[in-house]
Protein 1
Amino acid sequence: MSTTTAAPTSYQGTVHELQKELMGTYYRQLTDIAEGKPGKTAQLLIAGNPVELLRTFDLIPVYPEVNALQLAVRKVSLPLIQKAEELGYATDNCAYVKADIGLYHGGYKAPFGTVPKPDVLVCNYVGCNVYLNWFEHLAELVGAPAVNIDIPFIRTPDGEPRAEDVAYVVAQLQELVPLLERVSGVPFDEAKFKRIVTLSARTGELWSRIKALTMRAPAPYDAYFDSVTMMAPLYCLRGTEEGLAFFESAYAELTARAERGEGPLPEERFRIVIEGPPPWPFLRAFRDLFTRWGAVAVASTYSTVGGIWEFGFRHDPEHPFESVAEHMLSANLCNRTLLQRYDQIERYAREWKADAVVIHSVKSCRLFSAGQGDMREHFARDLDIPTLLIESDLEDPRYFSHAQLRNRIDAFFEALEQRRITGAEVVHA
Amino acid sequence: MTVVETRTFERFRDVIEDRSFPTVRAWRERTGRKAVGCFPVYAPVEVAYAAGMLPVGVFGGGNRVEIANADSRFQSFICSIVKSTLELGFVGALDPFDAMMFHSICDPARNLASVMQRNFPARHVVYVHLPQNMASPSAVTYLAGELRRVASELGDVAGRTVTDDDLARATLAYDEVRALLRELYALRSRAPERLATAELYTLARLATLMDPADVAPILGEALAEAEARAERPKDRVRTVLVGSFCEQPPLELIESLEAAGCYLVDDDLLQGWRPFLGHVAAGGDPFAALARSYLDGSAHLSTKHDLRRPRAQALIETIDRTKADAVIFLGAKFCEPGLFDYALYRTALEKHGTPHLFLEFEEKMWLYDRIRAEVETFVESMLFR
Ligand code: SF4
Ligand code: SF4
């Protein structure tokens, strides 16, 4: 391994500290509500979501995916998954759902806080069909009013929503208003909705600029491993002043790093695009497998699950319902076709000047993974971009094989190195 | 099983398993028109038929196709039907189809639509988004519009414009087929000794492969034939089968379930082809009528999420209505929608006091001994309770 960089390091700036603090406050607030303090919560899902509308009714968003990933990061997901399996869930069901069901049956008590029983379940069906199952099950368990918001999948070749689709989603969001008024006890206030949408628009603008920073070499942060740090505030706090302030600080800090020419590693040797969710239970170990090769992610699809802002989408306070609808329909990864995802990755590879694409295929999430073999085929063969496909899981630690991953990753970067020296054949593994 | 040997059923057994789609090739030759392959579960077949095309159920390769290319595209943890359907494309078996229709049923099927499009760019892919907010007052208008969009896409493939009259006529044709299937299902539930599930399945599957005008007389004849049988009921456990709504178990497996001592009195096999509880309303906008039937007049499907009525409750109602004593959950391996439902069913069945058996299958399986033995043990435990 003469070619690898020395000590594995990673970027740990104030952004990470700030994120911890904000998320700590968020979970303390949830715990307080669970323990009887005033406050109402709505559960919804990450993919292109209408959090702006929920916040208009002072409903605090709770994302079961964020809870599930926190459980995995703290390495407590397995017993919860097993609890759900005892109850009849299959090994092949998404482990996010199983961890969440296990958490519910354990009184919603997690090491990072207690999740209150939701006052309303809003299933924003944005691409992922498991979402529908998940909230159907929660509706049975929790007994809170539940509604699906049906988001037509993008069916146009250009990736734009049809006017009928926008109208349909707007209608459903408006139909939701009386229910939200009832469960929250807060009347709808359009001016407030617009204010919240304005905050989201500004947050989106900053996030988009942050993403553009990794076009530089070296990239000032890792657009996979460090981006995930910024994702929790993007979802849990989007549409709030605190959330916006977080992104202002992050942007300032990361810009300063970029200007100083600092990256997350002592030396940026390979620029990669990572596709797929991370293995949360082994995030650190997984990162180190790339760090040792000086590989930095300059873009990632996972960071666009909840929204794609880097290609120009912004919420529009003048048309709050329509722009929330548009966000749900087309400005996120989940509701776009696999082929549109190929285009997105290709764009990253070209505009962010990446050397390779790494596909992390996770068993739990078939939205991401189903067909990634075809994706590899496309990138390696049609586009001649070195492409690596590796497998594990995002939540279930049983599917993470460190030695195997290490072998595959090492072999890939060795070959990439070789290609660099000799200009040899395309690498794909 | 003497009944299976009767001519009507026997002669179609090979037809439904033949992945060269003989009925479709013959139809194309005869009519000179085009065909569209419909991936399960529910497809708006009337719309395709209204465009002058033959909508055909494409349920993967069963145990007739060896997967050689598709498993490099889809991982090991993806259900077989997704891979085998793609494989059918690679081996040229989808050549009789000018278009393929996919629906928002699950994540793998959705991604398959993309992979199909990339690998076979000449074959048009139609992707239908079926609504999941069944309670929304906007859903009918949306779905009617979606069906019109599908009509215009398929119309482009077929080279014609689909009119309201076309759709009204097509709907009538399929209504007739579905009404016959409902009667056949009712007969089997009433007198399962007169119609074996393997026979019923053969007929229902045939209806996914033929022009409704051609298959309706066959179904009518089979119904009369089965009604007239004078079989004596055997001492078997009346069982509801769920979980096989998309990928299909081999016919021999279905047979061996009954041979192991069950009468299947209801099932969700091929359910997307017989989703409606009654006729589609005639008169008015036929697109809206079809949309309304799907939204408000169809059975529970594992891929349709109707929060107005819990699906486990629907299963319990089926058990009560069919006077079933047991449930067999026969789920396709790796099929998430089915496996999720099982968790709900299990709790409800335990509460209702209905014994159930959980089984997994793969379309490509050849050996049924283990499953048969499990069912036999289950049946024995039921009979000697
Ligand atoms: S399948 Fe994927 S997108 Fe869907 S809930 Fe699971 S992890 Fe999330
Ligand atoms: S068998 Fe299940 S997972 Fe596979 S395509 Fe059908 S519904 Fe989807």
Protein 2
Amino acid sequence: MPVLIYVDHADNHIKKSSFEALTYGVDLASAMGTTADAVVLGTVADNLASLGKYGIKKVYQVADAKLNTLDAQVFTQVIGEVIANTGSDTIVFSGNVTGKAVAPRLSARLKAGLVTGAVGLPDLSSGFTVKKTVFSGKAFAFVQLLTTIKIISINPNSYSTKEVGGTAETRQLSIPVPDSKLKVTATNKVSGSVPLSEAEIVVSGGRGLKGPENWGMVEELAGLLGAATACSRPVADSHWRPHHEHVGQTGLAIAPNLYIAIGISGAIQHLAGVNRSKVIVVINKDPEAPFFKAADYGIAGDAFEVVPKIIEAVKKLKGK
Amino acid sequence: MKILVCISKTPDTTAKIAFTDNNTKFAADGVQWILNPYDEWYALVRALELKEKDGSIVLHLINVGGADAEPVIRKALALGGDEAIRVNTDSRDSFSIAAQIAAYAKTAAYDLILTGKETIDFNGSSIGAMVAELLDMPYIALATKFDLNGTTATVTREIEGGEEVAEAGLPLVVSCQKGMAEARIPNMRGIMAARTKPLKVIEGVAVEALTAISSFSLPPAKAGVKMIPADQAEELVRLLHEEARAI
Ligand SMILES: Cc1cc2nc3c(=O)[nH]c(=O)nc-3n(C[C@H](O)[C@H](O)[C@H](O)COP(=O)(O)OP(=O)(O)OC[C@H]3O[C@@H](n4cnc5c(N)ncnc54)[C@H](O)[C@@H]3O)c2cc1C
Ligand SMILES: Nc1ncnc2c1ncn2[C@@H]1O[C@H](COP(=O)(O)O)[C@@H](O)[C@H]1O
């Protein structure tokens, strides 16, 4: 049975995290000796046949504009119908906001074993066992899915996309879409900036920056690197920065390629949200700050002197 | 109006994470257990605020777990709430926990069910959605604000790169995160009152787990930090570009 990958979109375009899910699903299908299909709910401007370049064979679409806003109840019902149509028995989601709302609902609907926060392909040598992060990134668990239908929701930024070339066949499915019981009345996007959960590079500031008026250099560095900005919990609690920038055990957990921590001590609860970053840079004036133990590169120095120098060096590197 | 808040017990955020029995069990010796922060700070406290505004609200707490969860349930009751229900099983599979909560909720007609965004030990972020599906209720995940106006809920939820405001009728299931409310500390009166509040223990229904954890592992230790002198920012940028290939 083919693997089915749920493809998520926003503002008319497929989300980056969904491309990771596509590659994951294609690799999984080849390990299982089957093919990979994708499903899109709602409408997008992107050319769906071009998903073939990730190795997708068929793209199913339920092109009802009602599906352009997330209602987990409606989405679950429609995806359930798609699965009944396609006979897929392995479903892949990206664990982004949509995946978090829909994948577990689908699991309950189909009585299908679910693993969320997956960070690698399943081990198929005995059963179907998937590695996932637990204890907020401080450990991994190996979870066996015991049911015929299996659902995997992968951690964003844990699988790199790969293009293999090809064109997918596209198929429209006419599945009746029930009316949503939710009414979206406002959408506030932080304009121009990179969404934190999808960012490759994150520049983050802590209480060491003393006050919100000092975030100019954080934003400048982030701008130069095409990075998102983040902060420690006390910074969000003091309203120096918006809540959605708070990373850590009780904030967002992120896994960028590069995390630059400025004036953050590196408390265990902070590390819990950032320790899956590939490269960690710490700038802290206290050489004993615990964060250095979790870092790849460190500068023990005053952020107000060091960061402007880094900005200059990055400008030079980028030829600006 | 009846509200149900789902509460779980998790190891303290500073607990040492280690495993025993050939890496199949969490090493719980000496570990402090706390109320899962998302359940406490956001779901429970927001429910308490709603109840403070509208005294007619009945607020119940539910935990699926063994008797060892009772100190944490009492702590939740010390913050507030009218009574707690413990479904006496120790299953750790998200679906079976959700099925227990749903089976109980079916008998009691709640208008609103709140969960935390996720447990900080298993990080499933699943149970709210599963409960909603099992009860055929709408579900809003990752809420950062919640308000009630009669029987209409106004909920702000996280979306990639921002927020979205949605209105929904009741009944409704919502998972709660940062922004919903500010953390509180129970006061002496609350702690005294909690001792006599009802904590009902009910037996679970038969459900089959869909998943099982076969083992755990710890991430490999970091190779160690490379320190760069404070006056050599350019060297850091060079290393990030050439060695780490991160910029
Ligand atoms: C249950 C629980 C959950 C929590 N969840 C989270 C969470 O999700 N995320 C989170 O971040 N925290 C969380 N915390 C809080 C956490 O324990 C720490 O208190 C917090 O991370 C500290 O933030 P900070 O590093 O910005 O501030 P501080 O600890 O005050 O550290 C500031 C740092 O800046 C350095 N500094 C000062 N001046 C300068 C300068 N001029 N240049 C360079 N460096 C400078 C200092 O040396 C210090 O290391 C949680 C706590 C609890 C109890
Ligand atoms: N054993 C439990 N009993 C009651 N509620 C729970 C239990 N485990 C988790 N929950 C609730 O479900 C939410 C999400 O948990 P999880 O899906 O495991 O990350 C938690 O924040 C709690 O509100």
